[in-house]
Amino acid sequence: DIQMTQSPSSLSASVGDRVTITCQASQDISNYLNWYQQKPGKAPKLLIYDASNLETGVPSRFSGSGSGTDFTFTISSLQPEDIATYYCQQYDNPVTFGPGTKVDIK
Amino acid sequence: QVQLQESGPGLVKPSGTLSLTCAVSGGSISSSNWWSWIRQPPGKGLEWIGEIYHSGSTNYNPSLKSRVTISVDKSKNQFSLKLSSVTAADTAVYYCARRLVWLDVPYYFDYWGQGTLVTVSS
Description:
The complex is a heterodimer of chains A (106) and B (122). Chain A has strands at residues 4-7, 10-13, 19-25, 33-38, 45-49, 53-54, 62-67, 70-75, 84-90, 96-97, 101-105. By secondary structure, chain A is mostly beta strands. In chain A, the strands form two sheets. In chain A, strands 2, 4, 5, 6, 9, 10 and 11 form a seven-stranded mixed sheet that branches. The radius of gyration of chain A is 13 Å and the shape is globular. Chain A starts with a strand and ends with a strand. Chain B has 122 residues and is an all-beta fold. Chain B has strands at 3-7, 11-12, 18-25, 34-40, 47-52, 58-60, 68-73, 78-83, 92-102, 105-112, 116-120. Chain B starts with a strand and ends with a strand. In chain B, 38% of the residues are buried. Classes of the chains: A mainly beta (106), B mainly beta (122). Chains A and B meet through strand 5 and strand 10 of A and strand 10 of B.
């Protein structure tokens, strides 16, 4: 199985700050990496697919990059509605998710 | 707009079998996509359980494979999960989700149900 790690596990930032989350795969997954946002009590929502493609309707302040084993997710200007936990997920079966990064407002 | 809705008992006794159904609306379960179950223990991360194609082909998480059965009912446009020999560690919110297929490659989970909490307790 491919193991996914994320860092940090949590962060606090101010509104307008740039926020960066990293995700690392235990082996080369090319660009087969997605990012989801989960708000409390809700199902995850797809934000980024294929490492860097923005899902339709997702604000452009969200972006992703990377390939191989190392990936980055960025919120260019943190907004109050971005308070959530963010997960990376790789495609190869068995599908695996990162442990999540909880983002809140300082 | 595809919608998914989980249903089933919210309480299951230890050593029993957890059974859930996911009803799909706004789209056909016979479309070229995979249909998945994912769970999330309270306060923890996401775990993929397995998936099914409309043909009946399945993929399971090896960590749960011996206890999991996923089936599809095309006539009702729904798919189901059975998890046997449950313990308290199986207490979680269970989500059903569609996994988009593009050029024969299963990609991301684009539609999710709202999730249903299943508690394993006597």
